[in-house]
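Per reviewer request, we include the raw input and output of the structure prediction for the construct analysed in the revised manuscript.
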Amino acid sequence: MATNPTVPRDSLFNDEARRSIQRRLDTLTSSSKGLWGKMTVNQMLCHLSDAYRVPTGERACGPSGTFVHHTVLRWLALHTPMTWPKGAKTAPDLDQAIGGTQPTDFDQDLAELRRLVEKFASVAGEIDGVKQPIFGALTSSEWGRWGYRHADHHLRQFGA
C-alpha cells in the first residue's frame, strides 16, 4: 500500500509512519525498562492497546477530559510539534493500575498491540467525530495524528 501524500507524516494513517511504529515495537523486549513513569513494558503495551480499542469500537471508555483538555490541550497535543509531557494522567479506564486491561504474556500483548495498530489504520474513514476520552470528539485526521503521537510518546518512554 502506498503512502497517501495528503496524510501527514506523523499519522498512523500514513503507511510509512505506521511501519516506523511497528519497527520500533520490534525493538522492545520483556525486560525493557521505562525511562520515566511507573508502567512496565507490558502495561504500556496493554495501555496502547486499550487506547486503540476505543476508536475501533472494541472498548468503551468514559470521558475524563475537561473543557481545557478538549480545546487548548487538544490543539497543543495534536496541532503543534510539542513533545507530550512525561507523567500526564490518562483516563482511568485506560490506566493499567486502575481499570485498564491487565498484562498477560509479553509476546501475546505485543501481538495484540500490533493487530490493533493495523485495525486502527483500517478505520481511518469511519471514526470522524468519535470521542477520545481526554480530548473529546476528534476528526479522522486528528485521530491519525493522536494514534501516532500516543505510540511515539510511550515508545520513547521505553527507549524505542
